[in-house]
Structures are given as structure tokens and as C-alpha cells.
Design a protein that fits this description.
The structure holds two protein chains of two kinds. Chain A is built from 23 helices and 26 strands. By secondary structure, chain A is an alpha+beta fold. In chain A, strands 1-6-9-8-17 form a five-stranded antiparallel beta sheet. A five-stranded antiparallel beta sheet of chain A has the order 7-18-19-16-15. In chain A, α21 packs antiparallel against α22. The radius of gyration of chain A is 28 Å and the shape is globular. By secondary structure, chain B is of the alpha+beta class. Chain B has one domain. In chain B, 27% of the residues lie in helices and 32% in strands. Chain B has an eight-stranded antiparallel beta sheet, covered by helices on one side. In chain B, a hairpin with a 7-residue loop joins β2 and β3. In chain B, α2 packs across α3. The longest helix of chain B is centred in the middle third of the chain and has 21 residues. The two termini of chain B are 30 Å apart. The chains are: A alpha+beta, B alpha+beta. At the A-B interface, α1, α4, β17, α15 and β26 of A face α1 and β2 of B.
Amino acid sequence: MKASNLGWKTQLGDRVPEPLATELDVFDNEIALKKQGKIEDRVFAETRLRRGAYGQRYDNGQRSDGKATRTLNYPSANTKGPGTLWDAPGMQRIKIPFGGLDAPQLEMLADLCEEYSDGIAHITTRQDVQLHFIHIEDTPALMRRLASVGITTREACGNSVRNVTACPIAGVCREQTFDVTPYAKAITYFLLGHPDAQSFGRKFKIAFSGCRENACALVRLHDFGAIAVTREDGGKTRRGFELWVGGGLGPVPQQARLYDEFVPEEEILPVSQAIARVFARLGEKKNRNTARLKFLVSKLGIEEFKKLVAAEREILPYDPRWTDYLKDVASYAEEPLKPPSLLQIDSIRPAGFEKWHANNVYRQRQQGYATVTIALPLGDITATQLRVAADVSRKYLKETVRSTVEQNLVLRWVSEADLPALYSDLKQADLATPVAGTIVDVSSCPGTDTCKLGIASSRGLAGELRMRLASKNAELDEAIGSLRIKVSGCFNSCGQHHVADLGFYGVSRNKNGYTVPHFQVLLGGEWSNNAGSYGLAIGAVPSKRIPETVDRITGRYRAERLQGETFQAFVKRIGKAECKKMLDEFTAVPPHEEDASFYSDWGDPREFTLGDIGIGECAGEVVYPIDFELVAAEREVFEAQLQLEAGNVEKATRGAYESMLHGAQALIKYKFLVAPEDPGKIVDDFRTQFYDTEIFFDPFVRGKFAQDFFRAHEEAGVTRTVETAHQLIEEAQLFIEACYSCYARMTAVPVKATA
Amino acid sequence: MINPDAVQHINLKVFVSDAGAIDLADAVGVFHEWIRESVCPEMLIDVADYRHVPAGPGVLLIGHEANYSLDNRENRLGLLYNRKAALEGGFRSRIEQAHRAALVACDRLEQEAPFRGKLKFDRNSLEVFINDRLLAPNSDDTWQALKPQLESHFSGFTVERRGEPRDLFRVSVTKR
């Protein structure tokens, strides 16, 4: 953990904007309270998850060394969640809405991955950035530094609205209906922290696409996917969205259903809010395996779901934010740094330029400009490379950079005549690999490298395939060059294997008395048409034979495809049985004594085991708002104590009193769903509902803690001494404890009397 | 004003003089073995493999107090000792501790079966980083504050500041 952590708050000062600064102070205090054992594991886990601070493999203190499972003796016995040790390294997910990044943000990511992580920033399949091997106590400083450049990690994990994705070429795309960027941005900040999006049983994913045909946003695998469309109405062109709901991958992949062919632009935010309300109210909460929106849509049927959302929409109280942003949408546009120009035919081209130009350069709708893809191996980029990306974004663009769901970066608005110079600059930093969007550009989730749920080494396999395919220049192969390969470490599909031509996900098989890493093979998924169809599962092949399997399948496609036949059509034509036959010769596993390599995974010489799989945190913890509200009240008491120690008696008094109000308010809200804001009304409601009924009464001291609260309210505004303020803080602490007890009694399962 | 004794998170990289014949993939197995055998004083956790990243961090042995890696940044392979947890003593003492840890790891790596006779570190060619921009930005102030103790510890070596202001504070250390 960093010695400088506390210093960043002072150093950054006003550069951390509100409300992020306050939120991070809150997180600091929650960490302090957790270290004192004052926050329950489950609640702290959801607290950190909602800030993007995830667990990582081996954080339960157990790790197989290939021969036996050993205990990792982390220094602290404290935990940061159920079965998750405090000192165990974790992952920090950083939301990058629609993938948009500028130069200071790239530089900040460079600094952070160097100082807190292992020198690598990882671009995910949802346009996020992830840093690994982070200590939980470093996360507030890390988050402050991100906030100073306009990035929040809030709701990057947990049961919340995850990073909103969008086409990385939105606004410069030749096929788009219109630029979806301002809408993606608006929905991001509208739903961030929105009260209607805080009580989900599971995560909620949103994507925006500028067109139906391309894949960039993968709308149809999202909970809420919006495709830009227009409609002629009274001689005017109206903007709107074809809205798809209830899509998702994971073990039960489901394509999104069409919700509406045209949701007008002014309705997209209120409809998202109404859907969030329906999901929060009716979505599954107890069984995380059936808690995604797709299950609710299936259960209700799309028509019933639409009716419920429409009814919810009707009763939503008006919010000016629904449409305020629209006045700026028409004028929203990125600007180039340089005037348009054309690539000179007779210009001197650096070696390798043509191949790079063919694969990594996209001609924009704006004549004279191009978008350049930086193809990153497995989504990994070093600190040095991030700084080079920042430098070139200043030299050639107005810092218009985006991350992509294919784990790459794109540089938008390159004046075409600059392409050779840009290529040379990128090449010097190993950022000009000419494989963007080809079969070599394999994407992968973290898998067993760092994920607690990983079964097999997706990154190990992806790296191996990438290396082998690159060595054969497979990206240049006219038949197979544009196929896509995607790998997941397990069935949870973070590598998006369902929508690849060749998809793989990690499984295991027991062979010859050993557990052997395998990958399930899926063929013929459709990347285009916004992930138009999912691949067919054909069979499982040992990990070590997947490269041969890829050679066999691609070789047969190359040899037997019909004129103009796509890979999807080819797979469909030859059929699943024939596809299975292709795999059969690769399924055998030699005895251990004959070839032990089959019994370990790619890039990991330890003997393979499933023993390292932990309990996933992807689903978050199902924590009701009262859990957070009581923690917040407790934190206020803690802060009041700090104020008193700093000599601020008045602030300490106010803080202690407000913590009691908030504790009472949390109980009222839990029981009646709504609670008043006015202190007098809170006290009245609390008295009627919890004191007079004796629900709040402690078995021993009866109504004492409630009486303390009533007295604190009567004396609010009275000037206190240090001693009486101290007493109030103690009473507040006990009152909050009593609130917890009351909540526990209200939720307790009655115990049957025994004879 | 930089207080040398407040400076933590010292990184020290010892460059290889000859690595022509080694396969970095072997480091993965070696580091897993180091975890199994608990060969370092630090608590060792896992191995991270970034061989696919050009001029990247190579293969890392992740520990709680420190990471060890065969690091290939700037395409210069070396053993990097990245101290994460605070070290006791003043700056001079911390440099000594980090330097010693790095040299012990170099000795051990050179003796590992896959590297024996193939991997040779040049103990006269090093770099020192401070992996904390707040405690030690790459500035003249930091340089002035740390230079005397760096030169004292590396007596007989030339110590030169490197990099640009946005880089970590960084010095090269070469035998005179």
C-alpha cells in the first residue's frame, strides 16, 4: 500500500470535483470503519464493488501451487467481503463511458498502472479499463486521481448500471444514422447514482449503436440496446431509437427482444428510468443466476413487460434532465486538429505502412479524415504506450481517442496526409501492429490469470493463437483474415465468445484420473448486425489442442467455401454433425506419463486444478438501500467524532444529530418505501411507527435509544460543550446500533418453538 | 521540499548483459517454483505473464511486499525489484535493502536450471526508480534531495537522472 495515499487529497484539492470529492471522503471513512470491524462484510463488499473495486483470484487466501493447495498468509486477518482477505490484491475497474478518452486521462491511466498496478492497463470488452493487483487501501487515492481528470469508477461493478458502451466510430461512421455519442453520455450521467437504479438484483448493461448492420455496439446482447433511427413526421426528420431489451450472454445467452421500433429521442431517458424501476421492483433478487433483466422479460413476455414499463412511465414525476441535454445534441461535434487532407499517392511511405493502412485505417464520413485503430495484444497497453497515445492524440488530433469492445484504441480525426507520420510514431512504440479487426486480433476476458471464476486460461490460449496466427500472416489470408476469434475463461462469456466466428470458453474434463483444461468450441456466431446471432456449441477440446483445431476448421473453410459464402453460412451448410466430426480427432488426451503438457494450461505450468475457483463478485451482493443508509448514518457518527477531535463542536453536534435522523429515516423507508425529508416529520413518523408500536424497543433498555433521539431533536440548535457534544455522539452511536437491531428483528425468520 | 527519509517504493532494475539464449517462458515456471518453495523473504502470491506485450513488464512474480520481474521495458531486459510495502530505516537504508534484494534474486535466477550458463546479469548496470510521483516527482528538487545518498550508496558508479517530468523519478547507475 502506498505511503503517499493520504497526501493525494491535499495535493489534488479542488481538482477533484463535487460530488466525487465527498463520495471519496465517504469511501475513505468506510474503509476506516471496516478496519475497525464496524461494517458488515456483505455491505462493504457491495460498497467497494459499486466503486469498481473487485476481488481477484486467490483473495480467499488459498492457492494451488500445482501440487497442493497452500494457504497464502496475508498479513491482515481482516476481510473486504465474505471470504475475501483485506491484503489480497484486487482489480480496479474504471468506467470509460462510450470509450471516450482524452490525453490527460490517458496519461493518468499511465501513472496509475505504473504506481498501483503491474505496469499494464487492460482494455475490456465493455470499453472499460482494468488495473490488477491493487491493494484496497490504495483505491481511494487512485479514484481521487481519476476524478481529477473527470473519470469516476462509481457503479463500475455490483448490481448497477455498468459502463454504457457505444460504437467507437460514432460520429465519424460512414453508415450511421446519426451520432449516438451525446445520448450515450446523457444516459450515463442520468442513471449514475439515480435512486431508481440502486435496487437491482443484478447488473444492467446499456449500448448505443449508430446503425443496425455493423457490430460496433453489439446492441442485441444488452439489457438495453438502442439503435439510431429517424422517422419523417410532418415534413420533419425526427430522431429516435429502435430499442431492444433483455439481451445477454452468460450461461443462458439470450438475444434482446424488440421493445419498440421508434422511441423518440426525448423519451429515451424516461423509458430507461421506467425500465429501471420495473427491473428493480420485479427482477429476481435472491437467485443471482436468474436475476438479469433477460429472465424477467422472458418470464413476463415482451408484451406484458412493455405494458408494465408504459404504466411506470405514465407515473414518473417529470425530470428536466430527460430533455435538457437535447438542446446541445444538434451542435455536438468533435473537432479535428488539422484541416482535411488526402494521403498523397506519391508520398514516401514507411516500411509496413500499406499493410497497416489496409487493416487499421478507416476512412471517415468526413472527407479527408481517417480513424486509426491501435490493435492491442489481448487489450494490454503499457504506461509508456499510454503516454505515446496521449502524445499522438495531441500532435495529430484534438485528443479524440476511444476504447473499443474489441479491446483496442481508436484515434479519430486524423488528417489523411498525416497517416504516414502517425504510423511511424506509433510503430516506434510498438503500437502499429497491422492486425486490427482480423483473425489475429483475438480478444479475451482475464480468465484464470486474475478472475475468481475462471476455469481455463483464456488469455493464455488467446496469446498462443495470436502468436501462431501472426507468424503465418493469417490476417492477410483472403478467406479467413477477417474472421474473429473470442475466448472466455468460463461460461460467463466476458470474452463474448457467442458472437465470434470461432468462440471458445473454458471448461474441464476428467481424463485418466486428472482434471484436464478444455475449451468448448462455438462456431458461426455473428459479430455483424449488432451481434445478430449466437454461435453453435460443437464440443469440448483439450486446451492444448485448440490451435490445431483452429487450423483444421479454418483450413476446411478456406478449401470448401462456396463463392461468397460467409463463415456463418458455411457452418450452417455443413451442419453441426459435420462440424463435430472435425473436432473428434482432437478430443483425445494422452496419458499423463506420455504427455504431461495436456494436464496444465497455456502459460501456466502448474498442474491444472479447479480448486482455485472462488466465489464470483460479478453479481455483486444483494444489499437493500437500508443497508447502505445505515452504514452512511454510522459513518456520519464517525465523522462527527473526527470533527470533535478537530475542535469543531458545532459540526460534530450537527453530524451526530443528522446521523440519528438518517438512521430513523432509513427504517421508515424500509418499512414504507418512502420517508419524509423534514426532520420534524421524520421524528413524528418514527414515534408513531416505531416507538409507540414498540417495534424499536430494545429487550433490555426498552425505549431509551429512541428517547435519546427525541431529545436530540428537541435540542437541535442548542449550543453544546465538548462534553455534551461527546455525549450526543455516544447516544447517536447507540441509536444507530439500535436501528441495526430493529432492522435485524424486522427481517429475522421466526424460529419455531420446540416442545 | 522532498524529505528523503519519507521516500518509499524504491524500484531497482539490474540489466542483463547477455540474454540471447534464454526463453522468457521459462521464467513463468521458475517463478511458480519460487512461490512453491517460498524462496523470497516477501510473501509471494502469483505470476503475471506479459510476454505478449512488446517492451512490456515481461514476466512478474507478484508478492505482497514486493514484485520481482524479468522486465523488458524499453526492450532492455533486466531483473526488476519493485518494492511496494514500506521499508524500515532512512532512504539510504531502504536503497541498500532494495539493492540487496535485487542482487539476491539475480544470483538465484542465474542458477535456475533453464537459465544456468545462459542468463547473466551486469551488476554494474542498473536503474533506480521511485514508484510514487507524490513522494518523489521526477524533478530537480527530488534529484537534489536524493542525489547525495544515491551517490553515497553507489560509490564508484556514475548516477545520472533520466526521463522527462511526467516519468517516475529515475536514475541510471553505471560503473565508472
